[in-house]
């Protein structure tokens, strides 16, 4: 166990002990059958707030009376045969170590039936029982390099690469030859006509 944790637990224990309140049962501390017309022990308890770490003092004649810690059933029936705990020293101080209900009755059944009984409800402490603060969330250390961004996806092999920047598409040259010069047709016809006219003269000379 670390020294820091030991110091923290000791501090919490010291605060709990320092803040604890000691109550005297009924306000006076006397544990006995209430007098006629007097406030009952439960009426006194309802006017007070009990919390974990508080304690209550019972004063009574030793060997003549006692304080029994019992469950709710024994409390309601004043059954003193099987108590959770029994105190007979005449000056009992009981500390509330937990929250919830506590039931006390006299060890004498007649006294219990005549009002020497007490029900106390102890409230839970609002602060953290361990006294330890919640751990802070983790954060990256100062000066750590930023996380790298995931690499960009490569282009699909099936898609054609884009044309180079600044260059347009090349249009293929037309395979159709240019039409012949229209002036050559009359010249050919004239030469053919003159040739036919000189054929008879050539036959005479031959």
From TrEMBL:
<dbReference type="InterPro" id="IPR039391">
    <property type="entry name" value="Phytocyanin-like"/>
</dbReference>
<dbReference type="InterPro" id="IPR041846">
    <property type="entry name" value="ENL_dom"/>
</dbReference>
<dbReference type="GO" id="GO:0098552">
    <property type="term" value="C:side of membrane"/>
</dbReference>
<dbReference type="InterPro" id="IPR008972">
    <property type="entry name" value="Cupredoxin"/>
</dbReference>
<dbReference type="GO" id="GO:0009055">
    <property type="term" value="F:electron transfer activity"/>
</dbReference>
<dbReference type="InterPro" id="IPR003245">
    <property type="entry name" value="Phytocyanin_dom"/>
</dbReference>
<keyword id="KW-0449">Lipoprotein</keyword>
<feature type="domain" description="Phytocyanin">
    <location>
        <begin position="21"/>
        <end position="124"/>
    </location>
</feature>
<protein>
    <recommendedName>
        <fullName>Phytocyanin domain-containing protein</fullName>
    </recommendedName>
</protein>
<feature type="region of interest" description="Disordered">
    <location>
        <begin position="131"/>
        <end position="184"/>
    </location>
</feature>
<dbReference type="GO" id="GO:0012505">
    <property type="term" value="C:endomembrane system"/>
</dbReference>
<keyword id="KW-0325">Glycoprotein</keyword>
<keyword id="KW-0812">Transmembrane</keyword>
<comment type="similarity">
    <text>Belongs to the early nodulin-like (ENODL) family.</text>
</comment>
<keyword id="KW-1133">Transmembrane helix</keyword>
<keyword id="KW-1015">Disulfide bond</keyword>
<feature type="transmembrane region" description="Helical">
    <location>
        <begin position="185"/>
        <end position="205"/>
    </location>
</feature>
<keyword id="KW-0336">GPI-anchor</keyword>
<dbReference type="Pfam" id="PF02298">
    <property type="entry name" value="Cu_bind_like"/>
</dbReference>
<feature type="compositionally biased region" description="Pro residues">
    <location>
        <begin position="137"/>
        <end position="165"/>
    </location>
</feature>
<keyword id="KW-0472">Membrane</keyword>
<feature type="signal peptide">
    <location>
        <begin position="1"/>
        <end position="20"/>
    </location>
</feature>
<dbReference type="GO" id="GO:0005886">
    <property type="term" value="C:plasma membrane"/>
</dbReference>
<keyword id="KW-0732">Signal</keyword>
